[in-house]
Write a structure and sequence with these properties.
about 180 residues; alpha/beta; 7-stranded mixed β-sheet; two-stranded antiparallel ribbon; globular
Length: about 180
């Protein structure tokens, strides 16, 4: 199961596009409401979560995904249960993925130390990446079980990288072909 953490203020594209692509590849995905089941995004789009944070089942967890959004990232960073799930995932060799500003949360937990990563290209966020190895001009970067994406505009590339990590490059290529990227 892939759990996409939704905190109030999340970036819509960075949550919905990876979810859509993963589901096209046959991956089980649940939106997790970190504070409520109806979660308002950065631009006021409300997404209905599939489960509450207390319902995350660590026994079937394959990947945790953190969308960005300045307010959403702040809300995720302040949620101890989210941080505990991230630590569990990392310590148990599960995938952890974050896009835009959210890789800064991984950096604060030392998950990205000495890992190749990308994040939103603004000093406010890049300076928080501490001991990570920033890869400039990449839409998405995978280093072991850590996957990062640059921004909302890179959500498709990020989502395809998630598929490749979980189901292989052929599955990602099939989804890419199916959505007709030109």
């Amino acid at each position: 199961m892939v759990y996409i953490m939704l905190a109030p203020g999340f970036e819509e594209m960075e949550a919905v596009i990876p979810c859509d692509l993963l589901r096209r590849a046959g991956v089980a995905v649940s939106f997790v409401g970190t504070e409520s089941m109806a979660v308002p995004s950065a631009r006021g789009v409300v997404i209905q979560a599939d489960c509450a944070l207390s319902q995350v089942d660590l026994t079937d967890l394959e990947m945790v995904v953190l969308p960005g959004g300045k307010v959403g990232v702040s809300n995720l960073r302040e949620n101890q249960a989210v941080l505990d799930i991230l630590r569990f995932s990392w310590e148990n060799n599960r995938f952890v993925a974050a896009v835009c500003a959210a890789p800064a949360i991984l950096a604060s937990l030392h998950i990205t130390d000495q890992k190749h990563v990308t994040c939103y290209p603004d000093p406010h966020w890049t300076e928080q990446m501490k001991d990570a190895i920033l890869v400039a001009d990449a839409a998405s970067v995978r280093d072991g079980t850590v996957i990062t994406g640059t921004s909302a505009g890179c959500s498709v590339a990020f989502g395809l990288e998630l598929i490749a990590a979980l189901r292989g490059k052929e599955a990602a290529a099939a989804v890419r072909e199916g959505i007709v990227i030109r």
